[in-house]
Amino acid sequence: MRGSDLELVQVTKRYGVTVAVNAINLRVKAGTYCCLLGPSGCGKSSTLRMIAGHEAVSEGDIILGPSNVTDLAPAQRGTAMMFQSYALFPHLSCVDNVAFSLKMRGVAKAERRKEAMRLLELVAMSSYAERLPAQLSGGQQQRVALARALITKPQILLLDEPLSALDPFLRIKMRAELKKLQKELGITFIHVTHGEDEAMALADLMVVMNQGLIEQAGTPREIFNAPATAFIARFIGGHNIVSDAAGAIAVRTDKLRLTKAVNGAARTAVVSDVEYQGSYVQVGLAADFAPELTANLSEAVFDAEPFNPGDTVAVSWNEADIHRLGTAA
Amino acid sequence: MREGRPASFYWLAAFFCLFLLFLYGPMIAIFALSFQGPTGGMTFPMNGISLHWFGRLWSGGGIVDIKSAFWRSLQLGLTVMVITMVFSVLAGLAFRKRFIGQNLLFYVTIASLIVPSIVTSLGIALQFRLFDEVVKAYAPGFIADTYSTAMGIFTSGLGAHLTWALPFGLLIMFAIFNRFDGRLEEAARDQGATPWQTFFHVILPVILPSLIGVGLFGFTLSWDEIARSSQAIGEKNTLPLELQALTSTVTTPEIYALGTVTTGVSFLVIGLALAGILFLRARQARHGSDAGKGLS
């Protein structure tokens, strides 16, 4: 039964007069790691909860494989959800938490515990099977929550900001484990996040949302190299947004060239700050042709021609590095 | 600045000790006097120490019908406890959703805490008397001829106690459900649990320790209630009412022995509830312990 594509057709969510999700269309191929990305309030969590069946759809359809699941109960859809801060049952041990869905279906105790132990093994938590959630660290709780979601053999695993409760070090570690697990299982993961680095690292399909709409969907590379709008260029970072005669353009911060200002230079700016970042040097610039301008120079390039705050520099870039933006957001 | 406590600490500590003495002194005095010797009177000094007055109480010698009053109060208290637990959970669940008349219902419920107890009691008595009149006047003969009153421990008395215990139970339940993480229910639903399964396997176990507290509260509120019982209890008295009546007629320490026994029952109920909560915790901790499993 595995391997169904997910399709959202004109899916809309209204809360009273506010439109949280505005007629979005999205197709997620089976086995994709999909990240829904956007600032808070952009509708990404509502979208996830509608796919899960925890939020009623105001309009539109959610199609999973051959069937329309819009009106099905959460457990009948072939989806499973991993909740933000995990929502483990505090009175049940890890193994009973994982075995919960089997218990609800009336599976015998020995059998359901065996299956739960297998899942705990998968997330390397079998030695903690008898502990209560309160006795586990955040990362361990997350693994148990993952096992509990996976025991229902979902076609799609839905993850609501799964890494936000972890400290930065653990976040990067768990990020890698999520990706590895998704590859092993071969099922679709839909992962809501507001961190563009998280989405870039994980996603096969990155869906950037803003104000209830999908601004752009594509691979992280497509989106980073060709952001559709100024909003996306700003949100994913690493871009300077500059207006020229024909409209707004984006130039990656690592494509800017800085030289000593000479008379007649097309664009000049004043260095406002210089930050050493290890592998590169970040130069903040104040210019009249763009509100904010940042140049990331490699250490070698910077050392060949160093600048100090207050210096006036000429700013240039190759025509090939210009990316023209759509309607400014 | 030197180590040690400021002078104000000792003043405040002394004041607090006086407050405790004021609070518990009377109870301790009655407790002590109930062990008065057979020839002792109702005031200090103690004239020997004995269980004489407890013996008198147990044999029912001096006081009429105190044992049956005790059992009546115990039954009523337990009934109030069960009803308070059931209805406060149901109402707590209902009030998590929005419904029409929600605020009105809430204020009407809480109002019975604010209205003076004696007024509530009189109102209930009046209502039952009206009901009695109607039955006597209009009911068919075979009922009306033998009918005297609908008032009694488990009708008007129970109602009077519930106007006291139930609103308290509700308020506690609201606080409990305020802290309840709704995502647990979503998680249960996600795992395929029906609403009933969600209630029995997730909601109830999580709130159970607090629910025991609510039951305890309901029992003790009923157990020592006087004002609301006074007009609405019907012809048979509860234990506190008997006790009150006895204060003017009994002139021996037997009444202190009775006070000690009733206080003891209150402590016993509290102790049982605490033991229940501790048992639940210990069972969870035992489940969760890694002791001896060789884990770091």
Automatic annotation (TrEMBL), chain A:
Q: Give all residue intervals belonging to the ABC transporter domain.
A: 6-236
Q: Which Pfam families match?
A: ABC_tran, TOBE_2
Q: Which GO terms describe its molecular function?
A: ABC-type transporter activity; ATP binding; ATP hydrolysis activity
Per the record's keyword annotation, is Isomerase included, yes or no? no
This protein's membrane topology, according to the annotation, is: Peripheral membrane protein
Gene3D superfamilies attached to this UniProt entry: P-loop containing nucleotide triphosphate hydrolases (3.40.50.300)
Q: Which GO terms describe its cellular component?
A: ATP-binding cassette (ABC) transporter complex
- Tree of life domain: Bacteria
The UniProt entry, under SUPFAM superfamilies, shows: MOP-like, P-loop containing nucleoside triphosphate hydrolases
Compartment list? Cell inner membrane
Tell me the keywords, alphabetical order: ATP-binding, Nucleotide-binding, Transport
Q: Which PANTHER family does the entry mention? A: SPERMIDINE/PUTRESCINE IMPORT ATP-BINDING PROTEIN POTA, SPERMIDINE_PUTRESCINE IMPORT ATP-BINDING PROTEIN POTA
Query: Which family does the record claim for this protein?
Result: Belongs to the ABC transporter superfamily.
Q: What is the protein name given in its UniProt record?
A: ABC transporter ATP-binding protein
Organism, per UniProt?
Answer: Bosea caraganae
Could you read off the lineage of the organism from its UniProt record?
Bacteria, Pseudomonadati, Pseudomonadota, Alphaproteobacteria, Hyphomicrobiales
Automatic annotation (TrEMBL), chain B:
Q: Which residues cross the membrane?
A: 9-35, 74-95, 104-130, 150-177, 198-219, 255-280
Q: What is its main location?
A: membrane
Q: Which compartments does it reside in?
A: Cell membrane
Keywords of this entry: Cell membrane, Membrane, Transmembrane, Transmembrane helix, Transport
Tell me the InterPro entries matching this sequence.
Bact_Polyamine_Transport, MetI-like, MetI-like_sf
* CDD domains for this protein: TM_PBP2
Q: Which GO terms describe its cellular component?
A: plasma membrane
Residue ranges of domain ABC transmembrane type-1 in the record: 70-279
Bilayer topology: Multi-pass membrane protein
Stored PROSITE patterns: ABC_TM1 (PS50928)
Q: Which GO terms describe its biological process?
A: transmembrane transport
Could you tell me which Pfam families the record lists for this protein? Answer: BPD_transp_1 (PF00528)
Q: Which family does it belong to?
A: Belongs to the binding-protein-dependent transport system permease family. CysTW subfamily.
Name the record gives this protein: ABC transporter permease
